[in-house]
Amino acid sequence: MNVDRIKGKVSTRIFIVFAALALFVIASAPVMAEESVSGKDLVEKARLDAEKAKSEAQKAMAEAEKALTEAEAAIAIAESHKEKAKEIKDNAMSKMVEAGYFPDDITLENKEGTSKAVFSHKKHTTREKLKCMECHPKLFIMKVGKDVVKKGRLTMEEMKKGKYCGSCHNGKKAFSINDIKHCRKCHPKSK
Ligand code: HEC
Ligand code: HEC
Ligand code: HEC
């Protein structure tokens, strides 16, 4: 083989390889371009979707905030009505007490009838300005003898634990049930 022929063959092969490469590039260029275009579209679409979702979320948030403000305003109105109603009820009850609707002195008697204590509504509500709620219904239900007395639960022992009269008559809010010099205040008829 002569050198020129070999050169010729080699350059032909090189040419073929280059030509094939060039063809491949030319053939794939539009595909690649298309791919990158649709990729851009996808990104743009996702961006638009995200923006839409964000604006919808913002709208929903604004609506929720508006509803909350309205609810709070309604609650404030309801609460002021409730306060007013309570005040009216308290005043009415105090008037009933003042008018003597409730026996001024209630006599509380133990089950066995061996002990008696007096309780004055007027002194506690009108004079001491205690609200009905401070005793009813958490300490006493509003019925003489129906609650603690008949059931035998209104005892000194319970009161010393801070129940019933003892929730106030503990030496802090009012004179103590434990002090011997105060027994007579509640048990005026005992020796
Ligand atoms: C310091 C506590 C206290 C306060 C304050 C108080 N009460 Fe009483 N109330 C009592 C006790 C004690 C009884 C008797 C409960 C029992 O026998 O179990 C009673 C009984 C009653 C009864 C039943 C009376 C009956 O004759 O059947 C009514 C009604 C009543 N209270 C209404 C009121 C009203 C209204 C107010 C507010 C204006 C008020 N009370 C404030 C302690 C209180
Ligand atoms: C704040 C009022 C109050 C004071 C103060 C008080 N008591 Fe009583 N006590 C009551 C009431 C109410 C009852 C239940 C009704 C009843 O049994 O007389 C009661 C019940 C009793 C009873 C009969 C039932 C039981 O629990 O044993 C005895 C005994 C008694 N007290 C003794 C005393 C003595 C002693 C003192 C003074 C150290 C005293 N009390 C101070 C309100 C009081
Ligand atoms: C919510 C609190 C409270 C409760 C419950 C309560 N008291 Fe009183 N009581 C007072 C206050 C306050 C005074 C006035 C201050 C003082 O005298 O230490 C008073 C005063 C009294 C007085 C003296 C009245 C006078 O002539 O000056 C007697 C008696 C009395 N209470 C009995 C009772 C009896 C009996 C009970 C339970 C059936 C009772 N209290 C429950 C708060 C209470």
Describe, in plain words, how this protein is organized in 3D.
The chain is mostly helical. It folds into 2 domains: 101 residues; 84 residues, Cytochrome C3, CATH 3.90.10. Helices cover 61% and strands 5% of the residues. The protein has a two-stranded antiparallel sheet with strand order 1-2. A hairpin with a 6-residue loop joins strand 1 and strand 2. One heme C (HEC) binds next to strand 1, strand 2, helix 4 and helix 5.
Question: What's the short story on this structure?
Answer:
With 191 residues, the protein is mainly alpha-helical. The protein has helices at 3-98, 121-127, 132-135, 156-160, 183-186, and strands spanning 105-109, 116-120.
Number of domains: 2
Strands in their spatial order, largest beta sheet: 1-2
Bound chemical compounds: heme C
Output mean pLDDT: 83
Derived from helix and strand composition plus strand pairing, the structural class reads: mainly alpha
